[in-house]
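RECORD TYPE: inverse folding
INPUT: structure tokens
STRUCTURE:
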């Protein structure tokens, strides 16, 4: 479990113990269930990261809800439900050359409008072969975007760089020449699923 989840687990767990000591069993059960869900939500499972300098990996777990070819490149958007792993992973190996945070609204993350209007944090990651912009987008339930990486940091392929608390969205803007490996409706696994390849 990531350290950001500890307060969300400890507080209801302690409250459940107190409720149990007071013999308020229904409240103790509810609080214990909340603590268990929070431990599940903030889980940090092992990922078997594939090798290759011509691949782009999913930055998060979830469902592909948008695939577009834009003037600036190819865009793949992944929606993370509350039961998905919310840790974000680097889609490529490279240097973080820019970090841009935008204070935005709290529209549902399922909406494509969220990519343009919601609170978001974009990492531009660059290596010798390509540049990928990975954007963390908060949803209607999300309360905080967490990013551990800063400008100038080097990221390995599949390396953890942050998380978004509760339902959210992650966009990948990739070079126009990449060959997409996913379509709308596909389920992807952060740090494992190949989203695209360089030809």
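DESIGNED SEQUENCE:
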């Amino acid at each position: 479990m990531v350290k950001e989840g500890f307060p969300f687990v400890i507080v209801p767990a302690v409250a459940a113990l107190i409720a149990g000591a007071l013999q308020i069993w229904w409240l103790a059960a509810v609080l214990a269930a909340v603590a268990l869900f929070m431990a599940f939500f903030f889980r940090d499972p092992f990922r078997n990261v594939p090798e290759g300098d011509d691949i782009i990996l999913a930055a998060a777990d979830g469902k592909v809800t948008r695939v577009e070819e834009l003037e600036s490149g190819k865009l793949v958007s992944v929606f993370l439900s509350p039961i998905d792993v919310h840790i974000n992973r680097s889609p490529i190996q490279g240097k973080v050359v820019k970090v841009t945070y935008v204070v935005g609204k709290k529209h549902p993350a399922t909406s494509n409008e969220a990519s343009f209007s919601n609170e978001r944090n974009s990492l531009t990651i660059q290596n010798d072969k390509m540049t990928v912009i990975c954007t963390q987008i908060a949803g209607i339930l999300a309360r905080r975007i967490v990013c551990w990486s800063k400008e100038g940091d080097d990221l390995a392929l599949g390396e953890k760089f942050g998380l978004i608390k509760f339902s959210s969205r992650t966009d990948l803007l990739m070079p126009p020449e990449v060959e997409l490996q996913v379509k709308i409706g596909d389920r992807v696994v952060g740090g494992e699923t190949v989203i695209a390849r360089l030809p």
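NOTES: The chain has a mean pLDDT of 88.
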